[in-house]
Write a structure and sequence with these properties.
Strand content: 15-25%
Number of strands: 23
Largest sheet: 9 strands, mixed
Helix content: 25-40%
Radius of gyration: 33 Å
Shape: elongated
Length: 633
């Protein structure tokens, strides 16, 4: 069949593009129908599979036009007959290469064979001298808006029927028929799956009707380019932005029943003020459950919608994926009894989660080196100590956390050059509040890994060193928020980081309430004096970091004298060497503070020595936890 079709195509002198537009009700599908119908080179067909579908399913609900539709001669014609009549009409109007636009409802998809682009049980359409090209569009809309619009339409319709049909029995009056099938987004995802699974076929075009309303000229231009047809504005393509108000010749027989609103429009500009229709309710529990099921497939399709990225309010150029694998990284989210691996772009926690409600969470940073996690036991000890200090209850077990880490790394195939942000929140609340008594579901665990080498755009320059400034904000003392709790309430750190960004520095030094150096906004800090002695601030006003503790141990091991004491800012300004420490960046040399060059302005010998010793830690006995084998990589 395909060979015959290809042979016919080579002999064809004209091309007709048949556009199948699939959508749910209340998705501006009729406006899109009218938009194409306004073209000089197009014929539009309104739901040619509806009658056949209604014959199969019409017993489930009331439609006042049902009998009329069953007896309508034009609607009795097959899809092929309707297409043939449309192409004949184009020929009679002198159109060489035309368009047949077909509006379909998503629930009609079972009456169409996508592999052969034909009505179920029929032959694929063919016409002598005409090359047929089938294209598919999935017209989507936010399920909330579909449901609320559907409910509003049914409420209006029911009231009108009660007025016009006062003699009817209650059983013949329509009721709210909102269902997963009517909302249609799951069926649209099914169509997407059916088409993309056909060998040699690309995915269908996904068109978000909200974007279409927002900028119809741009979106329609892009759509026509994707369909490989001309977009005209007053030329052969016709003006797709406007249409005359009132009934149209392409309307289905059901138009008087459904199209009252669209008949009052005269173009896409009529939809720009849709807010005037008022604020709508989604309905009761049944509708909320439909919304719950419909949003995930909508989000998936929406991410693939035409013009989605270019019309969004964020600048994709600001995304820095030095390793492109991070765009598709998988993370772990879950409670003690239910967790799962999810892609980063659909990962999320409840708005009732304590981390969202009040930064009520604790966290750790982990690094993976050549199949091993450095200092995992020490990090987990601090994580659970912080959770205990915060009074968390129904907490994940240590074994559950390790299992989640291993599963997440395995899912991503990560065994090296990886940083993990490990977060444990107090968990979801049953109501909005900062009261921990509202937390009854257990803690929320988030395992967020990234391909992140020690030196990259998201870390520091450990080869040449970095510059610091002194921040205006003072570090929290234990009398306010104890930094020994590794908590997520980090505004005290974020404000000086903003200052550093504005000053073009890597980070900001934070002082304690007495003016002594505490740490930076993100790391612990060390200095080397003119005698080669290593100094670091006491942990009174800073987090006693695990990397900090490690450096103190290594310094003793290699014969470097190290002291913990109160250190003034002036001492750092005049130091021979300065470096910072943290899990994400290891040891980072500091070559300038507040415009003052530190030492020679280059990485010093003590810093280099400690950097070298630190890099050997993952291979030392007792310092790392080996990862299990990952099957499938």
């Amino acid at each position: 069949f395909r060979e015959w079709q290809n042979k016919e195509a080579t002999m064809a002198t004209r091309t007709v593009t048949i556009i199948h537009c699939w959508s749910a009700p209340r998705s501006r599908s009729t406006a899109t129908l009218y938009s194409f119908d306004s073209r000089d080179d197009a014929v539009a067909l309104d739901e040619p599979l509806y009658r056949r579908w209604l014959l199969l399913h019409g017993h489930k609900f009331y439609r006042p036009y049902k009998t009329m539709l069953f007896e309508h001669e034009g609607e009795k014609k097959s899809l092929n007959e309707r297409i043939d009549a449309a192409i004949t009409s184009l020929q009679s109007n002198g159109v060489e290469n035309g368009v047949v636009f077909i509006k379909h409802m998503a629930k009609h998809k079972d009456l169409f064979e996508f592999e052969h682009d034909r009505e179920l049980g029929a032959l694929a359409y063919a016409k002598d001298g005409v090359r047929i090209s089938h294209q598919h569009i999935l017209l989507i809309r936010n399920p909330f808006d579909i449901i609320s619009s559907w409910n509003a339409k049914h409420t209006y319709r029911n009231k009108k029927e009660e007025e016009d049909n006062s003699s009817k029995t209650q059983s013949s009056i329509s009721i709210n028929e909102t269902s997963l099938e009517e909302v249609g987004i799951i069926q649209l995802l099914g169509i997407y799956s059916s088409i993309t699974s056909i060998p040699g076929r690309g995915p269908p075009i996904v068109l978000d009707s909200d974007l279409l309303v927002k900028d119809p000229s741009h979106v329609l231009t892009s759509l026509c380019a994707a369909l490989n047809i001309a977009y005209g504005n007053g030329t052969i393509g016709g003006d797709m932005l406007t249409w005359p108000s009132g009934p149209k010749s392409c309307d289905g027989p059901w138009a008087p029943y459904w199209y009252e609103e669209i008949h009052s429009s005269n173009g896409w500009s009529s939809f720009s003020t849709e807010a005037r229709s008022g604020y709508r309710s989604v309905g009761g529990h049944v509708c909320v459950d439909i919304l719950r099921a419909s949003l995930p497939p909508y989000d998936y399709l929406s991410s693939r919608a035409l013009c989605n990225v270019e019309m969004s309010k964020y600048d994709p150029g600001l995304e820095i994926f030095e390793d492109p694998r991070n765009a598709d990284v998988l993370c772990w989210i879950g409670t003690p009894d239910k967790g799962r691996v999810v892609p980063r772009d659909i990962a999320g926690v409840s708005p009732f989660d304590s981390a969202v409600q009040g930064g009520d969470a604790v966290w750790e940073g982990l690094r993976v080196y050549d199949g091993k996690i450095l200092s995992l036991e020490r990090h987990l000890k601090r994580l659970f100590n912080s959770a205990r200090a915060m009074g968390f209850i129904n907490v994940h077990s240590k074994e559950a956390v390790i299992e989640a880490i291993f599963r997440t790394l395995a899912a991503n195939g990560m065994r090296d050059h990886t940083h993990i942000r490990l977060t444990l929140s107090r968990g979801k609340k049953w109501g909005s509040s900062m009261n921990p008594k509202f937390n009854v579901y257990g803690t929320t665990l988030i395992v967020l890994p990234e391909w992140k080498p020690v030196e990259n755009a998201a870390t520091y320059d450990n080869t040449n060193g970095v510059s610091l400034i002194t921040g205006a904000n003072r570090r929290n003392p234990p009398s306010c928020v104890d930094s020994k709790i590794h908590h997520n309430n980090m505004i005290n750190n974020i404000l000086p980081k903003i200052q550093a960004n504005l000053a073009g520095a890597a980070d900001a030094i934070m002082l304690d309430l007495d003016g002594f150096v505490s740490e930076t906004n993100a790391t612990n800090i060390f200095m080397v004096d003119f005698n080669g002695v290593l100094h670091t601030p006491l942990a009174d006003h800073c987090l006693p970091g695990i990397t900090r503790e490690t450096i103190l141990m290594l310094a003793e091991e290699v014969g470097i004298i190290a002291k913990e004491r109160r250190v003034s800012l002036a001492e750092f300004h005049s130091a021979d060497e300065v470096f910072t420490t943290g899990t994400v960046g290891e040891l980072t040399p500091v070559t300038m503070i507040d415009g003052r060059v530190i030492g020679t302005g280059k990485v010093g010998p003590v810093t280099k020595k400690l950097q070298s010793v630190y890099k050997g830690l993952p291979d030392r006995e007792g310092w790392s936890t080996p990862l299990p084998d990952f099957h499938g990589y």
